[in-house]
Design a protein that fits this description.
- With 75 residues, the protein is mainly alpha-helical.
- It has a domain of 33 residues.
- Helices cover 44% and strands 0% of the residues.
- The chain has three helices and no strands.
- Helix 1 packs across helix 2.
- 3% of the residues are buried.
- One of its GO terms (biological process) is regulation of DNA-templated transcription.
- It comes from Actinocatenispora sera.
- This is Toxin-antitoxin system HicB family antitoxin.
């Protein structure tokens, strides 16, 4: 069962946001996912990442679902 994600309003200096957005694009993440990635890494480095925290999605598009085709059913 998926848990609901928390929403957070974050005020950033425009130059910091632009730098984050460029970094996120280079790593195929959204800016929001990049911020979460950095926060998780900082928590982990500080020894404060909770043990029960779920895994973060991998960067990039989710893998395509393979739908069974008519030829698969014949085998």
């Amino acid at each position: 069962m998926a848990t609901e994600r928390k929403k957070l309003l974050l005020r950033l200096d425009p130059a910091v946001h632009d730098a984050l957005a460029r970094w996120a694009a280079a790593e195929l993440r959204s800016t929001n996912a990049q911020i979460e990635f950095l926060l998780r890494r900082a928590l982990s480095d500080a020894g404060r990442l909770p043990r029960n925290v779920g895994e973060q999605r991998r960067p990039g598009r989710p893998p395509a679902r393979s739908e069974p085709t008519d030829t698969d059913a014949e085998d």
